Amino acid sequence: MTTFPNIFSLQGETALITGGGTGIGRAIAECMHQAGATIVLTGRRENLLQEQVSRLGDRAHYVVHDVTQLDQAHVLREKAEALVGPVTCLVNNAGIHMKKEAVKTTTQEFQLVLDTHVLGSHALTVEFAPGMMERKHGSILFTASMASLFGIPKVIAYTAAKSAYVGMVKGLATEFSPHGLRVNAIAPGWIDTDMSRQAFAGDPARLEKILARTPTGELGQSSDVGWAAVYLASPAAHFVTGTILPVDGGVSIGF
What's phi and psi for 83, nearest 5 deg? Predict the structure, then answer.
């Protein structure tokens, strides 16, 4: 029987985190690395990836990759495996946000958001899942959103993409779990990141509204999401699959 705290350890695991150079992706990478995992960060901006890997040190690597280049998913897998061997945890975290009224959102804009979130994560899942199932060991995580759980105005493309994650997690978990591969998602609430700070700086009323409807009365920290990801990827979550875990200070159940 695995003992505490080893049951939460990621020693021996190798995690690939898309969008790992900034924000929540960076926090997931940091927490998984602290938990003992070898990590591979991916993203489009090499300078950010280099900075993060340099800061983390041993067991940290990166591969520059754009998830919207769907036909290059196999290249990412090959490069990652050449660096660290088999990947045991895939974190589909890369995404883009677009705030725009629904009637002003063009088909091209909608498609770009879907390509980044939905088709990008599917392409990587198709690449990494077979090896995990063959080894009877693996975990796939998706970064969902409050937009997966309830309506938020002026983010229709983002809402559609993040809502799709809910269906993907349930469908993939049903298909993959009998083969030793668990699939889950985290739905972050409003988190204190560089991006959110910039948004709130120009819209203090929005921050006030968010805090008013958050039962804990505060913004979350990126590490709150990071440690939730560690749990879901660890042996402690052996019997957890197909779930959407809100990390939101109670927003999704509060009034």
Answer: -80, -45
Q: What is the residue type of 247?
A: V
3-state secondary structure of 66: coil
Q: How far apart are CA 48 and CA 248, in angstroms?
A: 27
Prediction pTM value: 0.96
- Catalytic residue numbers, as ranges: 158
Give the residue ranges of DSSP H helices in 151-221. 156-176, 194-201, 204-212
The tokens describing 43, both together, are 């993203």
Q: Which of 15, 28, 7, 4 has the alpha carbon at shortest distance from 191? A: 28
Measured CA to CA in angstroms, residue 224 lies from 11, 147, 189 at distances of 20, 18, 10
Q: What is the SS3 assignment for 14?
A: strand
How do strand 60-64 and strand 38-43 relate by DSSP bridges? parallel
DSSP letter at 100 equals B
Q: What CATH number has the domain spanning 6-244?
A: 3.40.50.720
pLDDT tens per residue across span 16-57: 999 999 999 999 999 999 999 999 999 999 999 999 999 999
- Ranges of each domain in the chain: 6-244
What single DSSP character describes residue 239? T
Phi, psi of 109 (to 5 degrees): -65, -45
